[in-house]
Write a structure and sequence with these properties.
The complex is a heterodimer of chains A (361) and B (416). With 361 residues, chain A is α/β, with parallel strands linked by helices. Helix content of chain A is 43%, strand content 20%. Chain B has 19 helices and two strands. In chain B, helix 12 crosses helix 14, helix 15 runs antiparallel to helix 16 and helix 18 runs antiparallel to helix 19.
């Protein structure tokens, strides 16, 4: 059955495009519920349309694999889903292929892609697909009613809200949240963090909970830590918590105060073996229809304005309106902080060193 | 045939001495030829990578390669006097080229390591460089005030060195300054020396623990009848053949706060449900797991040495009036020292480079220096610093090797 359908798909593609034999590309993303949403919304329709095949691989972010592959001259990944700061940095270091925005299809109403994408979503070497957010979530069986945490300051208050905390093992997002908890307004965060006193201030807030922190690295870990009762609350990617609630009926709740939102970006490593196919996949997957379809699988906001209008309900439960689950929904967005990728590209070496030294203390 | 004083010759008239030398040479060449594949393999897979690694720790040509004019001029600058128009002009000229060839990002990343924030300064200035007109220094300062700051140019001067001690110094928490002086890193950035000391401490404790645990086991193995000792030897080897990951993760199952051991403690009232011991995700967990994993590396060399110690020596000592303790210390123990030396050196050197086990069960205070090397290889992409840290670790291992040779003597070691 499978062989026939692949074969039929290939035959259709050959007829439609008059193309030669079908190819295979390797698409690398963050795994779990997120990769699942991409497979449903991007991979399957693209394979059906073009007859090509996709090998899906998981990773934990960062540029190390891309750098090793490019430097060794043995690139096996065709297209990778990275954070914006890594896309900028990889482009700077010459690890990524430049992308011509003219390959991106216009919106259904004819608006050109460069106008349809949210400002900042298209860079020299990357095209954003979603807006995601770092939030914190708690277990509703542990904190109930009026006793539930509501603000970012509550996360750093283990007296009022006892229990272990989960945090990603990186200074990124943690320092911003620490400053927000200390009363720095959203639009001042990076200005304060740019000064040595601001960094000291952020680490002082982190000091308050240091002994209660369980550090995580992969995006699938925080919902697991919450479910196992290892932590009472944890920072997480909002889509992962949404998925645990919607698909697995876990008793978790997201606190949107001081959420830190960022783009996820498709990039193509320099010398990718199937560069042309990867470009084609990139253009296809960031089209309005695919981005809107992905939003019915996971609560990450599409990077195109036209796709945001088409967001519907959760794929398996029509009672969940996906619009309200997005980081960009008005009631979630009030105190949101936009991740400053320029700041992080400039300061991550310094802050990583400081963070590691702080951890080892 | 030949008289007694003349050289002995073979049937074809060649002196026997030369003939013998030829034959010896041929057999040596043949032996060398057999060893050649291994030698080539070691050179390609071991020596060359290590040399490349050491080289990367001191060699960083990025700036000099892509900004040649600036590199040439900045060498003459004394880091204290004001920035000159000549320096500014060279920088702008280099930036125009680097921007066109898309190499400015690599330059910016490099300088950013010395002075955080200069990455965006370089990339944004390079975007404007083509339109700048003399006087360039004014044009640069107009673009960003940081160009008037000597600190920016000092960072450039450090990075312009193709061969630089900066990474090696950073690996021991020192800072290389533009004027060539060396100072300690600010306290909040100091980490590597602390980790290096912790790595050595953990390795020493693990070595001692494996010795204390392994010595009696090896003694038992070597004195029991062959049939029983073989059975027991299988018990030593079985974990040895099991994957390192499996063994490490099973320690997690045993030691974690909801794990087997803590459950038993609670059951027997040694502790309460609220105050379970934290034995994993910290240094304790690393010590326990590493001692277990490295134990066979101690037992096996000890066993092979003890096996060769004739039991009659101890019996002889006893028959001449020595107490069991004296007989052990004066007769048995000295003969087992080569095994202790081999086992200890093996365990220590393996332990000092451990990183999977600390990464899995180390938490924060159980991280070792190899985990930082891993971090700089995979996360921060600062491969030069990773190489420098590797070089420091190599020096430490060689130092202990030398120390061992001085104290015990390398010839005294016996692996089997």
């Amino acid at each position: 059955m499978k062989i026939t359908s692949v074969f039929a798909g290939a035959a259709v593609a050959a007829l439609v495009a008059g193309a030669a034999s079908a190819g295979t590309i390797t698409v690398v993303s963050w795994g779990g519920a997120y990769t699942k949403s991409q497979v449903e919304a991007y991979h399957k329709p693209w394979m059906a349309k073009t007859g090509n095949k996709i090998i899906s691989e998981d990773y934990n972010g960062g540029l190390s694999e891309v750098k090793s592959q490019v430097e060794a001259g043995n690139v096996t990944w065709d297209i990778v889903d990275v954070e914006m700061s890594d896309a900028v940095r990889g482009c700077d270091e010459g690890l990524l292929e430049p992308i011509d925005p003219s390959i991106l299809p216009p919106a259904p109403d004819g608006t050109p892609a460069t106008k349809d994408f949210i400002p900042g979503a298209i860079t020299d070497c990357g095209v954003a697909n979603i807006v995601w957010s770092t939030i914190y979530a708690y277990d509703t069986t542990k904190f109930k009613g009026d006793n539930a945490p509501k603000t970012i300051a509550d996360f750093f208050d283990t007296k009022k809200f006892p229990g272990k905390r989960g945090m990603r093992k990186t200074p990124k997002a943690n320092l911003e949240m620490a400053l927000a908890a200390d009363g720095v307004p959203a639009d001042q965060i990076y200005k304060v963090l740019g000064t040595p006193e601001g960094v000291d201030r952020a680490f002082k807030v982190l000091d308050r909970i240091k002994n209660d922190v369980v550090w995580w690295e992969a995006g699938a870990q925080p919902p697991q830590l919450l479910a196992d009762g290892e932590v009472a609350m944890t920072t997480a990617y909002n889509g992962r918590i949404f998925n645990a609630v919607a698909a697995e009926k876990k008793p978790f709740k997201i606190v949107w105060d001081a959420q830190i939102f960022d783009f996820d970006v498709w990039v193509i490593p320099k010398g990718a073996p199937n560069k042309d196919l990867a470009m084609d996949f990139l253009a296809f997957s960031t089209a309005t229809k695919q981005l809107a379809a992905q939003a019915s699988w996971i609560s990450y906001g599409p990077a195109r304005k036209s796709a945001n209008k088409l967001i519907g309900t959760y794929h398996s439960d029509p009672s969940i309106d996906m619009k309200a689950q997005m980081p960009t929904a008005p009631e979630n967005f009030k105190t949101a902080i936009q991740n400053d990728f320029e700041f992080w590209a400039d300061h991550q070496d310094e802050l990583n060193d400081r963070f590691n030294a702080w951890l080892a203390k | 045939m030949s008289d007694a004083t003349g050289p002995i010759v073979t049937a074809d008239g060649v002196p026997l001495k030369r003939k013998l030398a030829q034959a010896m040479f041929r057999s040596r060449a043949r032996a060398f030829g057999l060893a050649l594949p291994l030698l080539a393999f070691i050179i390609v897979a071991f020596i060359i990578p290590i040399l490349t690694l050491l080289y990367r720790g001191v060699h960083d040509p990025r700036f000099a390669q892509f900004m040649p004019r600036t590199t040439a001029i900045i060498q003459k600058w004394d880091t204290k006097s004001p920035v000159t128009e000549e320096m500014a002009a060279a920088l702008v000229a280099d930036m125009v080229v680097a921007r066109k060839e898309r190499t400015i990002g690599q330059v910016a990343t490099r300088v950013n390591r010395e002075l955080p924030g200069t990455r965006s300064l370089f990339t944004s200035t390079a975007r404007k460089a083509k339109k700048m007109k003399p006087p360039y220094l004014e044009a640069l300062i107009k673009k960003d005030r940081k160009w008037g700051d000597n600190a920016t140019w000092q960072a450039i001067k450090i990075t312009a060195k193709t061969y630089t001690p900066a990474y090696l110094l950073q690996a021991v928490d020192l800072k290389y300054n533009a004027d060539g002086s060396i100072t300690r890193q600010p306290e909040r950035y100091r980490i590597y020396l602390k980790l290096l000391i912790r790595t050595m401490r953990i390795s020493l404790i693990v070595t001692l623990a494996t010795l204390v645990l392994g010595y009696p086991v090896a003694y038992l193995l070597s004195t029991l009848p062959v049939r029983t000792s073989n059975m027991l030897l299988i018990l030593v080897l079985l974990p040895f053949w099991t994957s390192l990951l499996v063994r490490t993760t099973s320690w997690i199952a045993i030691l974690q706060s909801e794990g087997v051991l803590n459950n038993l403690f609670v059951l027997f009232g040694i502790t309460t449900d609220q105050q379970r011991f934290s034995m994993i995700y910290n240094e304790t967990g690393v010590l326990i797991a590493m001692t277990h994993i490295l134990l066979p590396f101690m037992i096996l060399p000890l066993y092979s040495v003890m096996k060769t110690i004739p039991p009659s020596y101890v019996r002889a000592a006893k028959s001449m009036g020595a107490r069991p303790a004296t007989a052990f210390w004066r007769v048995y123990f000295p003969q087992s020292v080569p095994g202790i030396g081999a086992g200890a050196l093996l365990v220590f050197i393996l332990a000092i480079g451990y990183y999977i086990t600390p990464a899995l069960v180390g938490g924060e205070d159980g991280q070792m220096i190899s985990n930082m090397i891993d971090f700089h290889m995979r996360k921060s992409l600062n491969w030069n610093l990773a190489a420098a840290l590797g070089a420091v670790l190599l020096v430490v291992v060689l130092f202990f090797f030398w120390l061992y040779d001085r104290l015990v003597g390398i010839d005294n070691m016996k692996l089997g």
